[in-house]
Every structure is written in C-alpha cells, then in structure tokens.
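Hey, resending since the last one bounced:
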Amino acid sequence: MTPTLLGRWQTRLFLLATVGVLITLPFHFGIIGPGIPVDHISPFFPILGYVALFGIMWDVIYIYMQQFRWDRDWPGAFQLFAGIWEAVFILCIVKLFGLPGAPKDLPIYWFTIHYSLVWLGIYLVSQSLMRILFPRWRFHGGRLF
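The structure tokens again:
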C-alpha cells in the first residue's frame, strides 16, 4: 500500500486515539511507570498528543520523501527509522524547552518505555489488525473514510 497524505493522517490519528490511548492508560494511572504525585498531572497523555501533533507535520515530509523512491512506497524498515527519529525529536523538544503538560524533568527512562510500547503497539496493529478489520484501508491509500 502506498499511503496518501490524508490516509497517513487518518491512520496516525485513529491508531493513536485507540491503541495509543489503551497503552497510555496504565502509565497515566501509575500502574506502569513512575508514581506521579497527586498534585501533578501525568505527562503521558500530553506526550501522546505531541506525538500526534508533530506526526501530522512529519507525515507531510514523509510523503515528500516518498516521491523520490522508485515505487513511491514506504517500507516497514522506514517506519522503524521514522519512529526512532520522532522519539528523539520529541524527547529533545521536551528536554530543551519543555512543553505544556510534559515537563523538562520527565525521566528519559519512562519516556522511552512509554513511547516504545505505544510505537510498537501501533506498528503491530497497522501491519496486522488494520488489514483484517479495514480491508478497504489497504486499497485506498490508508484512508479510513
């Protein structure tokens, strides 16, 4: 499947809103991850939001980069590199500037675990369940609607 820009956006937002939220819930409530003091807000949902926000921007760049590949496709290995790059980018932004809801003192260890589990969950669902549950998704450039 060669995703279109609209398809990339729909797929990214849908998977972050479903799989990403399900994986983030245990982190948010402290079942997994650092114990967040009661008077503080858990940074994991804001991080998920920033992954979605910055991801929309990255998808524009990824679609542009696809135009230089002979088959105009984006193989799974590129998804791996994109996931690593996006994690490094968001972590650097959070550590250098801090973002609302995501403080500068966010432990890198817990960010890495949370981001890795979310990314792995989304990658696995996009490579398996999406193809089963949404057969048209594959043939319409990743668009769900």
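The chain has six helices and no strands.

Sorry for the duplicate.
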